[in-house]
DNA sequence: CCCTGATTCGC
DNA sequence: GCGAATCAGG
């Protein structure tokens, strides 16, 4: 007997691309949703890899018709306007609430671009000047000299090495790197961009 | 680090 | 055919 009970094992629905699902997949893919978004839309048992894999098998990788009717050279980038930005964006965002959201399928990141922004005097008033203190303050008693570093201390240098007030972060470092969480993130975000 | 799609390859 | 693992890029 064919004992393929792979399905219906633990109430999980391992996909099994039905016409319905494939249809939805096609639709969403064409609409420009990302693979992970589509995966989330199709169900918990579907990963973005599954989606991408299917997409390729269906041979519908290309999903945007830029209307390349003119293989001409790039028309000089149009300079619409340069809304001058003041000093800093003053990002006062951080407190990420602990909202339970396993996989928040985004609403619709579709439309973006031309967004008329008009600031009322009130809004402008609320724009504080950027703190500019993008560095952690380490209490003096926590500061470490070069010789005090060990495997578990953050080795992020702070200050001018030539001056007296030079020290190392010294916070407990992550297993994944030589820095504490704060500095690890800071380092990566810089380097990874330009790497290679 | 987050994310994206592309490709490979054992199942 | 399927999709996790990997790769390559932003």
Q: Would you summarize the structure shown here?
A:
This protein has helices at 19-31, 35-42, 48-57, 121-126, 181-194, and strands at residues 157-158, 167-168. The chain is built from five helices and two strands.
Architecture blueprint of SSEs:
Layout: H1 19-31, H2 35-42, H3 48-57, H4 121-126, E1 157-158, E2 167-168, H5 181-194
Antiparallel strand pairs: 1-2
The protein binds a DNA duplex (11 and 10 nucleotides) through helix 3 and helix 5.
Structure keywords:
196 residues; mainly alpha; two-stranded antiparallel ribbon; 2 strands; 26% helix; rod-shaped; disordered N terminus; DNA-binding
* Helical content class: 25-40%
Main sheet?
Answer: 2 strands, antiparallel
Question: Which regions contain 5 or more consecutive residues with pLDDT less than 50?
Answer: 2-10, 71-120, 124-128
The best one-word shape is rod-shaped
Number of helices: 5
Mean pLDDT: 68
Strand order of the largest sheet: 1-2
Tell me the quaternary state.
single chain
H/E series: HHHHEEH
Beta-strand percentage range: under 5%
Radius of gyration: 26 Å
Report the count of strand segments. Answer: 2
What is the terminal separation in angstroms? 55 Å
Specify the structural class: mainly alpha
What does it look like?
This protein is mainly alpha-helical. Among the domains are: 19-58; 140-194, no CATH class. It is 26% helix and 2% strand. It is built from 5 helices and 2 strands, in the order ααααββα. A two-stranded antiparallel ribbon has the order 1-2. The longest helix is centred in the C-terminal third of the chain and has 14 residues, at 181-194. The radius of gyration is 26 Å and the shape is rod-shaped. It starts with 18 loop residues before the first helix and ends with a helix. Residues 2-10, 71-120 and 124-128 have low confidence and may be disordered. The chain binds a DNA duplex (11 and 10 nucleotides) through residues 15, 17, 34-36, 47-57, 61, 184-185, 187-189, 192-193, 196.
